[in-house]
Structures are given as C-alpha cells and as structure tokens.
C-alpha cells in the first residue's frame, strides 16, 4: 500500500500567500539573525534601492524586513518621512524565540508594540504562531487605507515552521477593504465657488494629490482657471510639472515667509497637503489678513491640526478631478512663469575612484522578489 503524502502548510507558506494576495511585489530590507527563518524558501534575490520610493513609484504596498530592535531603531528616520508622506509600508521585524522573550535574551525585541510609536498607524505581534498571517493581512490593509501610512509587525523567529490554520487562511485570501473617503458635492460646490469668485486665486499641491488622476486634474485645473501653482513645503515628491507655465515653485518652510507669499492671493485652495509642514523657525503670523485658505486631505489629523483654513476630509485626487471638471474657464492673465536657472556644469567631473572609500556602502542591501 502506498502512503499518502501529507503536505503541511506552514505559517511561512501562509504568510507568503497573504503577501501575494495583496499585490506585494518585493521585500526590501537588511535582515539579521531573527529574520532568517522568514527568508527560508523565499524565491529570488537581487539588490534594491529604497522600499518607500518603490511603493510610491509602483502604487503598491512597500514591505520592509528589518532586524529586531536595533534594525528598527536605525529605520526610524526613514519612518518619519514615510509617515509624513503617507506612503503605504509594512515594516516587519524579527523577535526572539517565544521561550527566550520572557528571559530577555540577546536580540529580544522589547515592547515591540510601543517601539515605533508614534510613527506608525498600528503595531502588532502574534499571540500564537498561527496569528501571523492574519496580522500581516490586517497590516497590509491598514497601510493602504486612507490615510495611508506605515504599520509595524514583530514576529518570533520560531513561528515560521509551525503549521498554519488552513481554515483561517482560506478566509484571509478572500478578504479585501474597498472604499476611500470622498468629499461631498457641497464641498465641491464650495471650492468651485471660491475659485470662480476669487480675483487672485492660487493652487497649492501636496503628496496626497500626486496620483495619475490627480496630476492630470491639477494641470487641467491650473490651465482652465489660470492658477499659479505652488508645491507645499517639505513635499517628498513633486505633484505638478516643474516646467509648466503655471508652476511657481516650492513654498518655504518658515511661517512668516510662507504667509508673505500667500498674501499675494485672496483665495488659496490646497489639495493633498498638510497646512503646512513648517520647519524653519518663525515668530510671524501663520497667515496675513485678506487671504482665505481651503484644503482637502484624507487625513483627519492633518485637517484638525492646521492652524487656520477651512478643511475638508476626503480623497484629494478625487476632489481635484471633480473641481477641475466644474470650475469656470478664466480669462485672467496667465501667471508669470518661474525663472529656472540652468545648472552649472562647468565644474570638475569626479570618477568613482576619486570618492573616498568611507563614503561608499560596504554591504549592499537586498531585495527579495516574490514569485507568483
């Protein structure tokens, strides 16, 4: 008699399945010993550059595999920018074995739920090995839900070879979260009326409007209403073509200097930007009299912490499209184009050999490709 071969689906297998189900195309990171069991059996490896930029460029969720407490600590600077730019990223770090955690063994990830606060939307660690796939499923959907951002997951290194919960896995592979908050028709009417009734309006754009639809709608709105377009301060990328005749440049990070620029306009409408992400110290007022600011963001925290303005919570790109379609065509003069100074290329050209070795990376990081 032939014995039937029983295939045991492990936590590791189930985890990979969840990643593929949610469209994760690559795993980025610089893992250590606690994370090696996760990489066992993960197909395909090659060098990479930056997980957050990969997520922004591809429109998918970034997935970073970092070493436990020390590796996560080294990533906190990057997490600050990733959180501020609403880039969807799941950061997973290894934990010591479950037996060793209570003893505080070397490389124990102490208080992993609190470790990355306040830079993540959510953090978790499975109570039992079989909970890992469910938690990464939750994390992936949270990271990609408005407002998009970073989540953190700590997984004990001895969980991966454990048998998975087959019944739970079947349900996890059917789950999805659909829906994005949108502003009401009344909000669109308010924004359109504000632009149509303004004598000197302006448009400010941030990363929340930098989608394919938002980019095109911003250009259409600027051209239709002949709006000067500014990019919000400290933006992680540019949501408007810099060579366009309406482009005015990047707003400064000092409150007073920014207020002086906005004082040129009676109405300023912002899409997808915190109002505003200041940096340089200033004791001057945030806004000068005579300027009214409206803004659309999908982040309630951004909306409620703004020191001025009428804020609307909803998808900035969607609002841009709807406002662009409804605003009246203007015959006001075109904005004065921004003068862009050509780069000075007369200087010396350095070769790789001329760069000191201490400035070169010693250890190339890795990108682990998930195959279907």
Strand order of the largest sheet: 2-13-1-3-4-6-5
Strand content: 15-25%
What structural category do the secondary elements indicate?
alpha/beta
Based on DSSP secondary structure assignment, what is the total number of beta strands?
A: 13
Radius of gyration from the CA trace? Answer: 24 Å
The global form is: elongated
Helix tally equals 13
Roughly how much helix do the residues carry, as a percent range? 25-40%
Summarize the helix and strand pattern as letters: HEHEHEHHEHEHEHHEHEEHEEHEHE
- In the predicted model, the low-confidence regions spanning at least 5 consecutive residues are 45-50, 358-372
Helices and strands in order:
Layout: H1 11-21, E1 26-30, H2 36-39, E2 45-46, H3 51-58, E3 62-66, H4 69-74, H5 76-84, E4 89-95, H6 112-115, E5 122-124, H7 132-143, E6 150-156, H8 166-172, H9 185-197, E7 201-205, H10 212-225, E8 229-231, E9 247-250, H11 255-262, E10 267-271, E11 292-297, H12 300-305, E12 310-313, H13 316-326, E13 366-369
Parallel strand pairs: 1-3, 3-4, 4-6, 5-6, 7-8, 7-10, 8-9, 10-11, 11-12
Antiparallel strand pairs: 1-13, 2-13
Helix pairs in contact: 1-7, 9-13, 10-13
């Amino acid at each position: 008699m032939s014995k039937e071969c029983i295939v045991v689906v492990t936590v590791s297998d189930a985890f990979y399945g969840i990643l593929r189900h949610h469209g994760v195309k690559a795993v980025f990171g610089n893992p250590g010993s606690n994370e090696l069991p996760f990489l066992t059996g993960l197909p395909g490896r090659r060098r990479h550059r930056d997980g957050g930029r990969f997520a922004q460029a591809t429109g998918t969720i970034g997935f970073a595999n970092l070493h436990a407490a020390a590796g996560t600590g080294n990533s906190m600077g990057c997490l600050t920018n990733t959180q501020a730019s609403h880039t969807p990223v799941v950061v997973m770090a290894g934990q010591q074995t479950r037996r060793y955690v209570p003893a505080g063994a070397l490389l124990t990830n102490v208080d992993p739920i609190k470790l990355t606060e306040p830079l993540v939307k959510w953090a978790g660690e499975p109570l039992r090995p079989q909970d890992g796939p469910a938690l990464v499923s939750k994390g992936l959907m949270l990271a990609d839900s408005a407002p998009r951002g970073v989540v953190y997951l700590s997984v004990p290194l001895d969980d991966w070879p454990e048998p998975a919960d087959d019944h739970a896995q079947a349900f996890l592979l059917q789950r999805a979260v659909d829906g994005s908050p949108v502003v009401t028709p009344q909000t669109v009417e308010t924004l359109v009326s504000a632009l149509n009734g303004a004598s000197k309006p302006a448009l400010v754009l941030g990363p929340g409007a930098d989608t394919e639809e938002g980019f095109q709608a911003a250009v259409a709105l600027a051209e239709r209403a002949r709006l000067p377009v500014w990019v919000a301060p400290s933006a992680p990328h540019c949501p408007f073509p810099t060579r366009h005749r309406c482009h005015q440049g990047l707003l400064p990070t000092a409150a007073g200097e920014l207020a002086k620029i906005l004082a040129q306009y009676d109405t300023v409408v912002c899409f997808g930007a915190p109002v505003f992400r200041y940096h340089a110290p200033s004791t001057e007022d945030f806004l000068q009299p005579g300027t009214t600011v409206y803004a659309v963001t999908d982040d309630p925290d951004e909306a409620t912490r703004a020191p001025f303005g009428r804020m609307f919570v909803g998808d900035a790109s969607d609002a841009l499209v709807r406002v662009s379609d409804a605003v009246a065509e203007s015959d006001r003069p075109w904005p004065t184009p921004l003068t862009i100074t050509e780069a000075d290329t007369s200087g010396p050209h350095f070769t790789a050999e001329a760069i000191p070795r201490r400035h070169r990376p010693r250890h190339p990081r890795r990108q682990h490709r998930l195959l279907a």
